[in-house]
Write a structure and sequence with these properties.
Blueprint lengths: L25 H10 L4 H19 L2 E4 L1 H12 L10 H5 L4 E6 L26 H8 L2 E7 L20 E2 L2 E5 L5 H8 L5 E6 L5 H7 L2 E4 L20 E6 L2 H14 L20 E4 L10 H16 L3 E4 L6 H25 L11 H12 L4 H9 L5 H4 L5 E5 L17 H11 L4 H6 L3 E8 L5 E7 L5 H14 L7
Parallel strand pairs: 2-3, 2-6, 9-10, 9-11
Antiparallel strand pairs: 1-3, 4-5, 6-8, 7-8, 7-12, 11-13, 12-13
Helix pairs in contact: 2-3, 6-7, 8-16, 10-11, 10-12
Length: 488
């Protein structure tokens, strides 16, 4: 986390410019590099300049790796001989563009602090296994992005005096969490694509708040994180945040060529809508919260657009039971309890429990008060997919809000807010995304609407396990009939 610096409290912030990156998405950047219009090194240097311009305003970068990235790009491009040769990534993938890694994945030589001051800034000795797949899928890492402590919050804010990560659409608003830093920098134009991961909405929520595409894939679609292997219920999956559907589709195509999980249907190369018409359900309210009027309007508009495209669209009730809300909160609390109790074993011998944030401490205390319910809650979460409501999907796709309300003002969800008040506020906002984490099915956030003041509103499209291709095909269709703007 960067030191606290003065920054505007309202208005937009953009790093888009007339350099080689212009307003290109990652696919276009890769195509330009392939054609020799500019080199990978030039793309990295342009991203560096953009980050240096925008980060003092939005505080979304934890640590840069510019020097190493530029040196690597120079070698890859063969610029020492004046030639612009294809990099190794261009030889194996569609994408090859400057990208950022969320600060809960190890990148050799850089510290991994999970957004927490309790973890010392010690450099990782090696890359996490996932990094190889991300690189093979075209992500050329130039630094790491902010995340709230351990990914527990849906806003990237801190209670230790550090500057929050600001939403480039409105600097007084949250960029979301826990992949908030990645989302803010992609939305602001600093890089065209960035890594994120999702344990309860952490890709989809910042995508919604920052006007991006964010797909949480099926459980097991990408290589698992090291610590996820030890979770009683693995709710975390990795992915990317992008400004276009084709970037997301190309990323997963490249990732699948590196590692294909045999228990899931292949995604393949999705390049546009499919001809078949689907049965699509849409919902306004979840079992935990109700959508505001502006969010409901976006759901209505999108349902109408899908019907006009020939899909069979009908309103439905949000699937699930009230028990799920209590079970997921207890599991969330259990994860915080393991951080507080076993942090020195999980992270570092120098782990400093005194520097934990208020939300982590509150969640751990919440678990200790009712730990005896934990086993039953985890058992129900593991068996959730056997419930007839989820075993037999009645719709090909379900459309819902990502969040009940537009991006909140910074401070409203800060971890320093008294715990019970904060938890009530979190439930008020977040009630649509965690179900897909527990079930393991794919869900994507698309920036399909705007508030009256111009803030992004994302909608979630969910499908059965293994049906990422179906989601991407419909996402291409919606991008065509309801195109979304970029920040000016």
């Amino acid at each position: 986390m960067t030191e606290k610096t003065p920054s505007p409290t309202a208005g937009q912030a953009s790093s888009f410019g007339d350099d080689c990156l212009r307003r290109l998405d990652a696919t276009a950047v890769s195509n330009e590099i392939r054609r020799g219009e500019f080199s990978l090194r030039e793309a990295v240097e342009a991203a560096k300049q953009r980050i240096q311009k925008i980060n003092p305003l939005i505080n979304a970068m934890v640590i840069d790796d510019f020097d190493r990235a530029i040196a690597s790009a120079t070698i890859s491009a063969g610029e020492g001989t004046g030639e612009r040769l294809q990099s190794a990534q261009l030889q194996h993938s569609i994408l090859c563009a400057p990208a950022l890694l969320k600060d809960n994945i190890n990148l050799a030589g850089l510290p991994t602090r999970f957004g927490s001051a309790a973890i010392p800034p010690l450099p990782a000795q090696s890359d996490d296994e996932l990094v190889a797949q991300l690189r093979r899928a075209g992500l050329f890492f130039i630094g790491k992005t902010t995340t709230p402590a351990y990914g527990f919050n849906c806003t990237t804010e801190f209670d230790d005096g550090n500057t929050p990560t600001r939403n480039p659409w409105d600097l007084s608003r949250s960029a979301g969490g826990s992949s908030g830093g990645s989302a803010a920098l992609v939305a602001a134009g600093a890089v065209p694509i960035a890594h994120g991961n999702d344990g309860g909405g952490s890709i989809r929520i910042p995508a919604s708040m920052c006007g991006l595409v964010g797909l949480k894939p099926s459980r097991g679609r990408l290589l698992p994180q090291r610590k996820a292997k030890f979770m009683p219920v693995n709710i975390v999956t990795d992915g990317v945040l992008t400004r276009s559907v084709r970037d997301t589709a190309n990323f997963f195509y490249d990732a699948e060529r590196f590692f294909y999980p045999s228990h899931l249907k292949p995604i393949g190369h999705v390049e546009g809508p499919a001809p078949e018409r689907l049965r699509i359900g849409f919902v306004y309210d979840s079992i935990a919260t109700k959508a505001c009027q502006e969010t409901r309007r976006v759901v209505e508009d999108t349902a109408r657009a899908l019907a006009q495209c020939g899909h069979h669209v009908e309103e439905m009730s949000f699937p699930g039971h009230a028990q799920f809300v209590a079970d997921f909160r207890l599991y969330w609390s259990f994860l915080a309890f393991t951080v507080v109790t076993f942090g020195s074993g999980f992270f570092s011998r120098e782990f400093d429990r005194k520097k934990l944030d208020g939300l982590t401490i509150g969640l751990a205390r919440d678990y200790r008060r009712q730990f005896w319910r934990g086993f039953s809650a985890m058992r129900r979460l593991r068996r959730l997919h056997t419930d007839p409501v989820f075993r037999d999907w009645k719709h090909d796709i379900v459309v819902s809000p990502v969040l009940a309300k537009p991006p909140p003002t910074l401070g409203y969800l800060n971890p320093s807010v008294p715990f019970e008040i904060l938890m009530a506020r979190l439930q008020e906002f977040v009630g649509y995304t965690p179900l897909a984490n527990a079930l393991g099915n794919p869900a994507v956030s698309l920036p399909l609407g705007r508030t009256s003041s111009g803030l992004p509103i994302g909608l979630q499209l969910s499908a059965p396990i293994g049906e990422e291709r179906r989601l991407l095909e419909v996402a291409f269709e919606l991008e065509d009939v309801k195109p979304w703007p970029l920040i000016h």
